[in-house]
Amino acid sequence: MRRSAFLSLLPTLLSLTHAQTTESLVVTAAQIAQSIKLSLPNPSLVLVPQPYYWWQSGIVNNALFTYGFVTGDKQFEDLAKNTLYNQATGANDFMMPEATGNDDQAWWALSALTAVENGVAVPAGSPTFLSMAQNVFNEQKARWDESSCSGGMRFKIRAGDAGYEYKSSIANGLFFQLAARLAKLTGDADARAWAEKTYDWITSTGLIDAAFNVYDGTDAASGCVDLNTNQWSYNVGAFLYGAAVMASQTGDKKWVDRTHGLLEAAQRNFVRDGALYESICEGRGTCNNDQVSFKGILARWLGATAVELPDLKNTIAVMLRPVSGQVQRSWAPSLGPMQQFVALESVNAAIRASGGVAAAFGMIGGSKTVVKRKARRSLAGRIVWDA
Fold first, then answer.
1. Which residues form the signal peptide (predicted)?
2. What are the two backbone dihedrals, phi and then psi, of residue 383, each rounded to the nearest 5 degrees?
3. What are the tens digits of pLDDT across the range 19-50?
């Protein structure tokens, strides 16, 4: 579609929220991405404002990369790329002071891997995004803990930190997904073996059960015999996409079956009335600053799974169509950064599952002006945004 033709159709497209056209989804995604950009305290870095956490900046950075390759609108690519370099540390491993947990570090490694997978250019003389992801993977391999429970990743990195004795599904799920994606990207047999080993360990503990429910974690100090059976949407998402990547690269039926099972668990446990739903906290309005972002992560990996295993695309598209429709009806620039992240990932995923990525390419124009920027002020040397 020519740019001039698109601009002439923009008012019509904005009214087609119920039709769920690729065009209307792209317009919505553009609006949300621009609003996220305008909410950043430092406009040159994808670092979300307090009270949100550093790891959440990593997932927002990933979302802006994803938006770019889904829609073809690359206006945020340099911002996301520069943020990776800014947060990489001298060792190019994302071990910033905020990286107290294995998952904290891994979120940034996955953002770097998304850049690699989608051909983001590396400046001359700069470390590659692949090397960053590999550095994190190699460091986390060394943290695999055989001293308790016959293996597994601990939630925290440093002994003595609160949560060090906890072996969490998210730390293991991100390590599993990182290994699976590196194996596919590079052909590294060692990474593939680590993905197999991690999944085998998580099922041996019961953290993924026979129905593919994914539980939150277990206590290493007690030998991992007691499970925390809370279910959070991002845990099943991490294993869902990792399993899909293993299925696509190995062709092994067990990975196809696991992907199907995890998808069914995601739909069973985290979809309600046509929306993604964080069942533990959302109904009571108690989701904290971590938990409010989880279902956006699930949405991302639903969309990625639809692309990875095309046989599941229709199932996931049907699942995501009402989700993205609700986003289109309810999204507003006044939402907080994590609510906007969830909205963007939901729409990104719906575009991917619809198979409309190619049609969306180059369609952005004019929608950036829809968002009104908040007033900026300084508080104790830190830029904050008025409501």
1. 1-19
2. -75, 130
3. 568 899 999 999 999 999 999 999 999 999 99
Contact 36, 333 (CB under 8 A): no
The DSSP call for residue 368 is G
Spatial distance between the Cα atoms of 145 and 165, rounded to a whole number of angstroms: 11
First to last CA, the chain: 37
Q: Which amino acid is at 272?
A: R
Two structure tokens written together for 123: 């400046």
Q: Rounded distance, CA 134 to CA 216, Å?
A: 26
Residue 379, beta-bridge partner list: 382
Q: Are 297 and 234 within 8 A, CB to CB?
A: yes
CB distance 13 to 27 below 8 Å: yes
Cis bond upstream, residue 51 (ω within 30): yes
Alpha helices in the chain (DSSP H): 3-14, 22-39, 54-71, 77-87, 102-117, 129-143, 169-186, 189-204, 233-250, 253-270, 294-308, 313-330, 337-354, 357-360
Question: What is the length of the chain?
Answer: 387
DSSP assignment, residue 369?
Answer: G
pTM to 2 decimal places: 0.89
For residues 20 and 295, what is the distance between their CA atoms, to the nearest angstrom? 20
User: What are the tens digits of pLDDT across the range 315-330?
Assistant: 999 999 999 999 999 9
- Taking the C-alpha atoms of residue 129 and residue 225, their distance in angstroms, rounded to an integer, is 39
Rg of the chain, C-alpha, whole Å? 20
Long-range contacts of 150-154 (CB under 8 A, 24+ apart): 150/201, 150/204, 151/197, 151/201, 152/201, 152/202, 152/205, 152/220, 152/224, 153/102, 153/198, 154/102, 154/220
Q: Write out the H or E segment, with its range, that includes residue 385.
A: strand 382-385
**DSSP per residue over 155-168, as a string?**
SBSSTTSTTTTEEE
In degrees and rounded to multiples of 5, residue 375 shows phi and psi of: -75, 140
